[in-house]
Amino acid sequence: GNSVTQMEGPVTLSEEAFLTINCTYTATGYPSLFWYVQYPGEGLQLLLKATKADDKGSNKGFEATYRKETTSFHLEKGSVQVSDSAVYFCALNSNTGGFKTIFGAGTRLFVKA
Amino acid sequence: NAGVTQTPKFQVLKTGQSMTLQCAQDMNHNSMYWYRQDPGMGLRLIYYSASEGTTDKGEVPNGYNVSRLNKREFSLRLESAAPSQTSVYFCASPGLAVGDTQYFGPGTRLTVL
To answer: Of A37, A101, B73, B82, whose CB count within 10 A is highest?
Structure first.
């Protein structure tokens, strides 16, 4: 079945450091890939997405590229800020299988000033 | 346009008590989902409704029931609450296409003593 695996946290970085959160997936068909972010005490909200291979999603300085050959969708940001501290979820939607959206376990990011 | 709303935001129950969590969306979406979020477990799907009048079990349906009251509303009921149901509950509603975002409510923090 479909699945998403992302790196375990927590990840602790200093402000202005480079961020990578790894995400790999297993899916049949042609999934769409997403990164969601959850700030403390809130629900999840979309950060970025890519709907086909080689697409790059970007938002708020974050980027991720849909790599079909490596089944990956790694999240990157060149210079993190304290306000980026949150939990990040990788997810996929597929038109095959019983459930439309599969989420990874989430990676908590702490950014220190 | 409020998106997805949930009530209540917080609830404390005693073991054996019952309660209903309410969810409504104003985006005219067909699908609605209930997830629970536990520390280190990511999101787990409890029940979902692909369209008005239909409901299906997700990964962890035991101890819960749902009602898709109409296209807007999807409620989750705990008939006899147990401490293992202490969690944060999120309602979500995706768009129609595989590439569409899931929109999440703000969550209900439930504690069962």
So the answer is: A101
